[in-house]
Automatic annotation (TrEMBL):
The gene is aldB. The lineage of its organism: Bacteria, Pseudomonadati, Pseudomonadota, Gammaproteobacteria, Chromatiales. This is Alpha-acetolactate decarboxylase. CDD domains: acetolactate_decarboxylase. Belongs to the alpha-acetolactate decarboxylase family. Its EC number is 4.1.1.5. GO terms for molecular function: acetolactate decarboxylase activity.
Length: 280
């Protein structure tokens, strides 16, 4: 399975072309990317299945399983098949979050149309203070990363004075417009809750490949409640940070994706990316 290989984006594109042209994908595996690997050091890759663009094209079903997610990393964010629950991977365990916010350990055979995983190995810690909104957090993240043009993965544990979370409820209509769906999700607030934030910062120019801006999920301390982060307040928090300059993308290997007329759609941007409705 191509997810297990370390490719650059270009290599992924070439692999896709090979897959489309049929069965000699393994024959195409070459080592002409070895130099690229060496020159980019030992930074880990984000291993991703599906794209914001495939979700926006109503591909709500995929075939990556929770077992595969765990083989690809220890930290992750995504959503399960038919958008029937947000997915959060923390410390190597994948949790599925029901529409009411209840988190449970995902069964190994749970499948997803969109999931980003990484073996989280933070290289530094930044202290972020006086956050009163999602936008403020996004600005603080930008102020604290070494380049706004690379991917960064974050994890922070502590007491958050306020979080507003969104859950994903299953779609009734597999062709429902993604933005219409986003507007129909339930939101719930947690106050003074100890828990963990995990997530990814993606530069806007990669917005059709990975959710642009901050895609953060929150999970409480005993992993019973969680969701997609929409708003946040805290006084002071240490974030472990890993800069990532590589993302391996697997296309959804489902028939609907193979058949559909894929459209270029502008992803939601800014605060609550992936959670807020598209701004016209
Ligand atoms: Zn999410």
């Amino acid at each position: 399975m191509m997810l297990k290989h370390r490719h650059t984006l270009l290599a992924v594109v070439s692999t896709i072309a090979t897959l489309l042209s049929s069965a000699n994908a393994t024959a195409h595996e070459s080592d002409d990317h070895a130099e690229i690997t060496a020159s980019t050091g030992d930074r880990k890759a984000i291993e991703q299945y599906g794209l914001p663009l495939t979700l926006m094209n109503t591909i709500y079903e995929g075939q990556i399983t929770a077992a595969e997610m765990k083989s690809l990393g220890t930290l992750g964010v995504g959503v399960s098949n038919h958008l029937n629950g947000e997915l959060t991977a923390v410390d190597g365990i994948v949790y599925s979050i029901a529409a009411d916010g209840t988190a449970t350990v995902a069964p190994d055979d749970l499948q997803a149309p969109y999931m980003s995983m990484i073996n989280f190995e933070p290289t530094r810690t930044v202290t972020i203070t006086d956050i009163s909104s999602f936008k403020a957090l996004e600005q603080a993240v930008l102020d604290n990363i070494s380049s706004a043009n690379t991917l960064h993965v974050f994890k922070a544990k502590g007491e958050f004075s306020f979080t507003r979370l969104a859950s994903a409820h299953g779609v009734e209509d597999e062709n429902v417009d993604f933005f219409e769906y986003l507007g129909s999700r339930q939101m719930y607030n947690l106050e003074h809750t100890v828990g963990t934030i995990v997530g990814i910062y993606t530069p806007a120019y990669l917005g059709t490949i990975s959710i642009p801006g901050l895609h953060f999920h929150f999970q409480n301390e005993d992993n019973t409640i969680g969701g997609h982060l929409e708003d946040i307040r805290f006084d002071k928090m240490q974030f472990d940070v890993q800069e990532v300059d590589r993302i391996n993308v697997a296309l959804p290997n489902v028939q609907k994706f193979r058949d559909i007329d894929m459209k270029m759609i502008q992803p939601p941007s800014g605060a609550g990316a992936g959670g807020s409705k598209k701004e016209e």
